[in-house]
Amino acid sequence: MGRYVIRRLAQAVVTVFGVMLVTFVLFRVIAGDVSSAYVNMKLGAEAKLAFNEKHKLDRPEILNFHRRLVLTDRSQGNFMFSVADSGASKAARALELHLAPYQPAPGRSSQGLTMAGRLVFNLSPTTPLAKMTDRKPLTAPANQSALPPFLVITLSDGTRLAINLFAVTTCGDLARAINGDPANRGRLVASISRWTPAKLFDSQFFWHLYENITFSGRSYATEQSILQTIAERGKFSLSITVPAMALGLFLAMVFACLVAYYRGGFIDKFTVFVTVLGMCIPYLAYMLLGQWIMFNIAPKFAAGLASPAAIYVPVAIAVVAGLGGSVRFYRVVILNEINKDYVRTARAKGVPLPAILFKHVLKNCMLPILTEVISEIPFLIMGALLLEKFFGVPGLGDLFLTSITSRDVPIITGLTYFTTILYVVSLLLTDILYAVFDPRIRLQ
Amino acid sequence: MKWFYGIALLIVAVLTLFPLILLSKDTAERHSGAIVYHCTYPADVKSIDPATCGDDISSIIQANFFEGLYAYDYLKRPVEVTPQLAAGMPAVSDSGLTYTIRLKPGVLYHRNPCFGKDPTGAHPWGTREVHAADFILAFKRIADYHINTGLAWAFIAGRIAGLDDFRESSRLYRIGDFSRYDRPVAGLEAVDSLTVRIRLGKPFPQFIYILAMQTCAPIPRELIDYWLTTENNGHGGRRPLPVHERNPEITEPGEAVGTGPYLLDLMKRKWKIRLVRNTEFRPDFYPSEGQPPSADYPGDSALGLLADAGKRVPFIDEIDYRYVDEQYTSWMMFLSKQADVASIPRETFQSVVRPDKQLTDEWAQRGIRLARFTDPAIYWIVFNMEDSIVGRSRELRQAICLGYDVESEIEVLLNGRGRRATNTVPTGFKGHDEAGDGPYCRYDTVAAKGKIAEAKARLNALGLLVKGEIPELKIDLSDGPDAIREAEFARQQFGRMGLRIKTIFNDWPTLQRKVNNKQSQMYMMGWVADYPDAEDFLQLYYSGNIDKGTNNSNYRNGAFDSLYERIRVMQDSPARTTIYATMIRMISEDCPVMLKYEPENFVLYHDWVGPMKQHPIGYGFFKYHRIDEAKRKAEGGGS
User: Fold this and answer.
1) Under 8 Å CB-to-CB from A118, ≥6 apart: which residues?
2) Which chain A residues in 240-259 lie under 8 Å from chain B, judged by CB atoms?
3) Are strands B473-478 and B501-506 parallel, antiparallel or unpaired?
4) Of A44, A440, B95, B562, whose CB is crowded by the most CB atoms within 10 A?
5) Which residue among B27, B323, B510 sits closest to A307, beta carbon to beta carbon?
6) What is the pLDDT of residues A261-320, one digit of tens each?
7) How far is CA A271 from CA A132, A263, A283, A332, in A?
8) What are phi and psi of A195, to 5 degrees?
9) Per-residue CA distances from B386 to A124, A371, B4, B518 (Å)
10) Min Cα separation A43/chain B (Å)
């Protein structure tokens, strides 16, 4: 048994990894540019860059073979500096220099300020500068009196390094120009970032993996962590789905037993008719009808959670809507058992049917029913989408739906991952339960 | 066996009844028996931080507890800016570059733990007066690189001297390092504790409207030092938060320290919001002057809007907002008297509102009243001027303007809730009447056909016709609930003109991306005025704004640009209005957009709600509203 469990767990890890890869491809690659949903277009391109940088969307997608041009401040962080362009050109923006976190450390030797250019594949000293500036080559204008694009780096003591970007053609030239500028005096060093194998995993996919495993993702819209979101809203979803499942199961079993007892009689036929009818009525109709009835009887309970008891309105609707299908299913399961030989023998021997039902049949049915119930548990947390929307219950299902349309990727992937984990664990649990309770089954 | 079934029953009972315990804390209602206003809101509040406020719902909620230097007068129309936390209108220097603003003395913040305990012991927490430095901190936060500032920054970017440099240098700081707020900004000066001096880089006549947005609400430094720099240590005290864990934005209700008439008591995202009266709100009074009667308006006095003139506000004790996504549900809540205000769903509109835009008798008898107001917005179809077909052929654009039956669209798709826009600036804005109706803003199928013939001729000369016909046009729509009907209507209209068209549905992020990348040939969009000045609509056609992202039709016109550069530094004057008229006529002639309608909104409210006047642009008018609780109880309304 132990080896079986370990093997299944290993399989589970592979499954979860596969799920994360697929959700990553679906939501990051296909969803496209998420920043336009969160960054007002009136703010321009810079705000988009800032957003992408903050959420690590500027990294390459799967694996990172990229390098950057890096400016390191060797003056122990004593001089803050900024980069600007000469106004007429947009050279600074073209290089997309953006900043690593700055650590002001008075009295302590810091690692120095690093400014890093954009990631470029296979960056080397011979890479043409055009590759770093968005692939538009900086051509010198025919009219020589037009301002050439200067890259101006200003240190906080007023020193200015002005690099003429027309005079440099490759990345190596740019680094040499910065390092060799007489005003520099060794305070600023330009170099190409060192590439280590660990860098390979600094990509969107591996950040996605990391965020999911540690549940450290934060919603793009509200900056709330995924764990807090699940904790806050999950209880509302569970408050609808768990009572609905428990009550629904209970009632369905009661009806199914009744029907099995009166098998073939009028009650049986009538129940079949009613359950099929119940299954045909669309879910939305139940909801609208239920809400309309509640507005006319007790408006306070019709929408929004005025009091905890108001949760039983959507619960009741979920139970009634699902009853048809459940009763049909359990009726079939029980009838299957009743038709078995041992039951026929017991009846022939004079044991009354209720005793057989409660003592033997239900016990044997319980295992398949229970395992089916356990495999439904992972989906309880997501709640009943439509019910939550209509009755104003602030649950996870509603959140999931709106996150998809508003491209709140961390929430979508976080919830998907959470559901996957629950699902994989519950599958394992059902298999173990089977082995424990059914002596005929041997786990290998 | 009995114990098995017994336990099973017990488990079912527990699983069914546990919500009663689990949810009891969250749903505990607390009404002090006071005057409560019940309202629903259809979209979630995105922010309670003035610096990140960018959408309508957030503005409506925030204006109750955050107040800016200026606000709009509740009753006067055309809208007027009036001092709120400022003592008077700003003293503007002759060059138009320096604004000196004196503050009202004695304005207190909401009592909050960030100010420490109250020294007199009468209240749990202390407070202090608003200082000039608090406004400067507010501007710095809007300029902060690390705060997702949304619209607020877009309006002051490149305007205030030294603020853009501040933004650049704030990049150098880590997100959680708030010492950046100590850096001085050249254009923002606290002359003394009650005087703010703002220096602009170049004249900006619309600056007063920016100051009237509550995004510039004052922020006390204590808020940052207490709420954003420390966290709860679990024993009722605070411990410092490490720099890399700090969040620069206000996210929790307790952190929203403002000066407004209401306090943010409770906020559960996508569920409910509760505002309670600020018992120490500064003396503020209901306006004594209103809008006089005119041809199409009976006058504020006749409508009962001046009954409370001169009385101290606010009147309502508590505002109870509930998040309701579905329009059906919020309508039913209104009908069952649980909500005080509602908008009218399309299905019931005909039975509620008569064709002459008044309430039908049976509804009036139920004690329900109707309020009508026009949004300063225009909805239109934008042509991509860089597209080879619609961009190159002015005749085609003019033909589409002539051949599209906008009046019919307003009738059919909007139940008449709108009026046709006649030029690119909304009614009531200076310049609209002077410019007059655009020559192509009418429905004239004969003229349209003539224009199409001309368009074909020109496109033929350019070699752009496909098999002798104008190629299929593509129009992008966003996928709202009405998108399908809009698309159907558009197809019908274009078909009648003899043009082939394909309608493409996009969700909002995709549509924005297409528009930004200039990949869309035509698309349906609109523009809601940010401030009551025609410049807000004219800047949409300035070629310098193509890169900035607000000119999405990619319209380029040198003559227009030079006029724009002139008016953007002119204060309001008849000369400026004349230039506005010229510019508007240029747009009416070139038709970079096909104008559709200005929306009209209808709102129903119960008769225990006192008369309300909707403001087209400003926010924060809940303090002027009245509720008659006795009347509500008499009519069976929810408590």
Assistant:
1) A58, A68, A95, A96, A98, A132
2) 242-243, 245-247, 249-250
3) parallel
4) A44
5) B27
6) 777 788 888 888 888 888 899 888 998 888 888 888 888 787 777 788 888 999 999 999
7) 73, 11, 20, 13
8) -110, 115
9) 38, 62, 76, 8
10) 5
